[in-house]
Amino acid sequence: MAYWRGLHVHEITYRNLEEWRITLGKRVASKTASNIPGEFHRFLRWLVRCGDLDRVPEFPEIPHDSKAPKILFPDEQAAVLAAIPWEHRGVFLAMAHTLRPGEARGANLDDWIARERAIHVRRACKGLEAVAPVATAKERNWRIVGAGEELAAWIEWRIDRATKAERLRRVGVPLFPNWRARRHLNPDRRWSHCSITWEWKAACDAVGVSGVSVYPGTKHSTATDLIRWGVNRERVQKALGHADPRSTDHYVQLADRDTIEIFRDREK
Questions:
Q1: Which of 8, 17, 64, 70 is the most exposed place for a label (fewest CB within 10 A)?
Q2: Which of 35, 50, 65 marks a domain boundary?
Q3: One digit per residue, pLDDT tens: the chain, 268 residues?
Q4: In sequence order, what are the beta bridge partners of 174?
Q5: Which domain holds residue 134?
Q6: Backbone phi and psi for residue 112, each to the nearest 5 degrees, phi listed first
């Protein structure tokens, strides 16, 4: 932002925005060079709402490379999940049901709706550490995610294992605890980002899967498979908790089989 030092907000024009974009493109990655002006644009809109600026100047289009994440096919995902010890598998099954890592880590016992066999996704850990604060989910939004047979069985096993004090308390008691966590360092036994990453990598190594991290291997892979099977895009967007449909379109692109089948159809 040093480019703007000494300039007044009323001096912002398309020309110097373009010069700033070129400067950013030389110093940071293309995605970052797109995100920073986006936040600056949001700041200028705020100034307009406050009455300190008459209008937001036109911003130049900022091209950036779109990266396609590596994903797992259903049989590969199932193999990795099966390689995770049962007592630790729950948080990964939840992520394979479209929960974000922070949402799975922040879920509590009272988020399980037994009658519906579903998880009320309304909280998330706001940090990478196991002791990170738990607050509202991303976009301050909530959703209900139904549990498949294995996830429901794991949650029922976890509730059976809960102490009497945990069942009475419920709020603040993690639904997917890390049983390896040391109580004196991590009283609630929540997963950290690192511990989830290590557990996932060990399972991938055990079944010979490489180059797929936990987020693409769980949520992204499931979303792509749902689109591949013809699930309505709006339903997928709701399940994923996406406020912007363009985020869901990313998985539509990954699942698009037209470019795969085009030459096969030609040869028939």
A1: 8
A2: 50
A3: 888 988 888 889 999 999 998 888 888 877 787 888 889 999 999 999 999 989 998 988 766 556 666 888 899 999 999 999 999 999 999 999 999 999 999 999 999 999 999 999 999 999 999 999 988 876 567 889 999 999 999 999 999 998 888 887 777 899 999 999 888 888 889 999 999 999 999 999 999 998 899 988 998 888 888 888 888 778 877 777 777 777 777 766 666 655 555 556 556 6
A4: 108
A5: 74-255
A6: -85, 125
